[in-house]
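Record filed below.
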Amino acid sequence: MRVKDRVAVGWIDGGQVDGMFALSMLNLFTSRSGRISTVVRVGGSLLSRQRNEVVQSFLDNGTTEWLFFIDTDEQIEPEAFDKIIDAAHDKDRPVVAGLYFGQWPGLAGNGYPPVTPMILRKNESGRYNPVWNFPADGVIPVDAAGTGALLIHRTVLERIRESSNASSLKDHEQGRWCWFRDMPVGGDWLGEDIFFCRRVRDLGIPIVAATGARLSHHKSYWLSDAQYVKPEEES
């Protein structure tokens, strides 16, 4: 990312946020004030709709080049933010994900559900699988990532809007609801973050993950790479 480029930070909340998230943002804004231009905050709980509204506001107000989505159940250290910024390039790496971890109760055995990295690649059948074996601190190509920590260049969002306006979905999306959607595709349910990444990749736009940019993710407790155990082989 160029030295002069600034970042708009966008998030969604229902009227209040976790105190640790707020402290994380305060620390980020004060220590990296030269990088951050504004905050795009949208209230509500319907993620796909509110994420679209964040993008609309970002594109329609101001000329900031980059939008950084972060969820209010995350914590980010300034150094992790720096790694995401350093990995970004408006043409070569216009979408950069940080690395955080999730859990799905349906995957649980006799104990806790496995800690799962929220960076994914498609397998031969077109399904998205977590990237289990990732470098400790590198930049790797992925096909999708959670939107909890995702840096996106303005041109990516504009290209999605243009392609939507040229498609059969024009009457429904109207250039305002084209970035995020929850829907089934090929028998699998795609959340709004995976749907967005699918649209990005369908346009031939690369997505990378900065694996050294680690965030803590608040589930029933704060979840980080300290709980992650790398399997011997990638599934």
